[in-house]
Amino acid sequence: MTDKIPLAGVIGSPIAHSKSPQIHRHWLKTYGLAGDYIPMDVSSADLADVLRTLPKAGFVGVNITIPHKESILEIADLVTDRATLIGAANTLIFRKDGKIHADNTDGYGFVENLKAGAPNWIPQSGPATVLGAGGAARAVVASLLDAGVPEIFLTNRTRVRAEKLADDFGNRVTVVDWVQAGNVIEDAALVVNTTSLGMIGKQEMRVPLDGLRRQTVVTDLVYAPLRTNLLATAEEVGCVTVDGLGMLLHQAVPAFERWFGTRPQVDSATRAAALR
Ligand code: NAP
User: Fold this and answer.
1) Using only C-alpha atoms, what is the Rg of the chain?
2) Is the distance from the beta carbon of residue 154 to the nearest atom of ligand 1 less than 6 Å?
3) Less packed terminus of the chain by CB within 10 Å, N or C?
4) Considering only CA atoms, which residue is closest to atom 46 of ligand 1?
5) What is the pLDDT of residue 206?
6) pLDDT tens-digit profile of 196-223?
7) Please, what are the domains in the chain?
8) Ligand 1 within 6 A of 107 CB?
9) Which stretch of DSSP H or E encloses residue 79?
């Protein structure tokens, strides 16, 4: 009898756009590991059944993406505190005892990408302005607070969503009206776009950016295009900018390590693999 080849994958709907298979397969090949990583289009109605079946076929875990990142918390047997606070999970481990363990590594990926792209950024150096209050914003806010950012100005088109997030994360998060977003950019050491604005096929961001200063670090979660108008404007001002692709790469690191037993490096070859 031989051990099954470990399998992992990503479950969402639709799933064809996902770059995760390229990233994980690149690492499997680079480190000479047995295994594979498979994209799976699964409906909400079938999700629980599929997840209970996958370990029997040799799956050691999966990534979860849109639209299942929130609802997965109801299906998982064990949910980390971090995923509970964020209200979403992106990584599942299928444990040997049959239990499904859910975690969220988006915030980890966000901060690691920021540290790599802006090594001189010091979390304690000043407030961060976060644009958007969706699922990704919750992971970003959690990780910035963990990293020691003293204050977060949170602004979202739908104010009530920002207020809910601030209620969940405590008094270091201050909600600012969307029409005032430009004003809190001026006061920030770090500006983060977590909205989908600027993404290919979506509207452009119209937040006034004249408050940007040279010493402000600017990062965008949008990675298609890689150089969004926000990042291009920030570059013109002389800011250090960090694109969103690295977050996608770094969030994959802890999952790959748990599933396949080797901690992978994020480097230029990983970026190239994701962009292929
Ligand atoms: P989400 O939960 O649907 O949230 C979308 C956010 O964008 C909300 O804040 C929403 O505001 C805002 N928004 C959408 N259209 C807008 C408009 N016309 N004007 C103003 N605000 C608008 O999505 P998500 O999961 O947080 O993802 C957000 C973005 O981050 C996406 O582009 C996604 O691809 C990217 N992302 C990247 C990574 C990475 O690894 N780089 C990881 C996760 C997500 P309302 O609340 O007012 O609707």
Assistant:
1) 19
2) no
3) N
4) 158
5) 93
6) 999 999 999 999 999 999 999 999 999 9
7) 7-104+248-275 (3.40.50.10860), 107-243 (3.40.50.720)
8) no
9) strand 78-79
Task: Say which residues have a Cβ less than 8 Å from residue 29's Cβ, sequence separation at least 6.
Answer: none
CB 203 within 8 A of CB 226: no
Question: For ligand 1, is residue 8 a contact (CB within 6 Å)?
Answer: no
Mean of pLDDT values over 96-107:
97
Ligand 1: distance of its center to the CA of 193 in Å? Answer: 9
Output the six-digit token pair for 69.
Answer: 């990142």
Q: Compute the distance from residue 134 Cα to the ligand 1 centre, in Å.
A: 6
Atom of ligand 1 nearest to the CA of 178: 20
Distance of alpha carbon 105 from alpha carbon 253, whole angstroms:
9
Q: What is the pLDDT of residue 90?
A: 97
Is the CB of residue 197 less than 8 Å from the CB of residue 244? Answer: no
Confidence tier at 2 by pLDDT (50, 70, 90) = low
